[in-house]
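#onboarding

Welcome to the new folks! Below is a worked example of what a typical request in this channel looks like: someone posts a single protein sequence, and someone else replies with the predicted structure as tokens. Don't worry about understanding the tokens yet, we'll cover that in week two.

Example request:
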Amino acid sequence: MKHKAGFVNIIGNPNVGKSTLMNAFVGEKLSIITSKAQTTRHRILGIVNGDDFQVVLSDTPGIIKPAYELQSSMMDFVKSAFEDADVLVYMVEIGEKSLKDENFFNKIKNSKIPVLLVLNKIDNSTQTDVEEKMAYWKEQVPNAELHVISALENFNVEGVFNRILELLPESPPFYPKDQLTDKPERFFVNEKIREKILQNYKKEIPYAVEIETEDFIESEKIIKIRSVIMVERDTQKGIIIGHKGSALKKVGTEARKDLEKFFDKKVHLELYVKVNKNWRSDKRQLRRFGYND
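Example response:
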């Protein structure tokens, strides 16, 4: 039996549903999902295995024009996605015109590898809108193969995945067949906590936050976790904690419930808040948090 394997990299502007699509492909919630832009900060691999295939999916940050060092590091993850892809999935939604970065857009249009242009969120559109957008994108990216989906409703997700399988080269698997992702457990703890902060706080607060898990101790019946929420200013620390600790407690409770589902085990989660001034613009700090690797 011939075995297929390859890297399938999903790129696009913020909030087009890249993480929802990858999670649908993998069948697990690996990438966090919120309505806020820049939810995804890292490049996250999700691995789908079959008897005769291995699809290594890559969810990257939404493409933006960087305003500070952290965002530059996020765009470096996107650049790397162009370098090792066997299939490129360029995801757009109704109402979009082009990528926020013209250089990336030109790379897609001149790509030598297969490009699947996936029009998402069609459940919110009329048939006429969809047909007009398909015609528009066919003209914009003539080298791409067009597909329409609703990642949220799981419409035509399987059809796109089957097309990806057809396009993959013959190759042995890159990762062990029982592996789901390339990230360690602590990474997912950090992401689940950050997701709850994105959902519960407004304005600048979620973007000034980074999580560091200091302890992850697993026994047969329980996982004991101690994590630190880093902020840039004392005022942000006060907002994260909230009146008598109420806001922090809510984040901890919601994150713990999600982590118990994710690890399928009881979780004890301790959260602390520390000020780490201007970490988003500090290259040394960014390396410590897994950026600029």
